[in-house]
Amino acid sequence: xxxxxxxxxxxxxxxxxxxxxxxxxxxxxxxxxxQMEGVKLIVTKTLSSHFQVTHxxxxxxxxxxxxxxxxxxxxDRQLGPTEVFPMLLGDMDSSGSLNAxxxxxxxxxxxxxxxxxxxxxxxxxxxxxxxTLGNPDLLGGSAPxxxxxLNVGYGGAHASYYHRANEQVQVGVELEANTRLxxxxxxxxxxxxxxxxxxxxRGLLDSNWSVGGVLEKKLPPLPVTLALGAFLNHCRxxxxxxxxxxxx
Length: 248
Fold this sequence. Notes:
By secondary structure, the chain is mainly beta. Helix content is 4%, strand content 57%. It has one domain (21-247): Porin (Beta Barrel).
């Protein structure tokens, strides 16, 4: 049937650019609870609208304890809530290892990212330099309530799917295949937001029979967030828990 007289032909609405590939991965990653063990104190200080520093002290019974310092500088050109250019990030731990990243916008469509890594390792009179090349990103797509990504490289493949059911419930699924180790891992995670209680709960279950969860609780009007997490692997009989205090 033809269009009604005087009616313009119907066109599909443009979906728009899904955003940077790192941003697509971040949405799914944030659904999963972060690994927690021991006690961690995080203090964040905003020095200006462009500069922020973070101090992290971690005390662990399973791994090494230490201190970590992070500094972030952001520029004036903002394309989205998390996309500001140029951006400089630096991270140093108590052993002297330094990692740095620089992100810059070249023109309107080209984004450049440089990663610098310096290891605080001394071997006589020689030095060790490392160059890391990331896997090429082949596919990424999104819609208002879901994001799917695919990353393929020489070492294997990584796929993820993120879905926001509503303002309180978000879920994420990851599939990672390692061709060198000849193994694959499947992970399912979810996030429940409780606005009335100022709390967020994140849980996960993977194909290695590991289960875990982290409960975060904000304490307004204080700029303090408390987090308690626990993780259990049934097959390996491993259990660890952690507690984090974030100020700022």
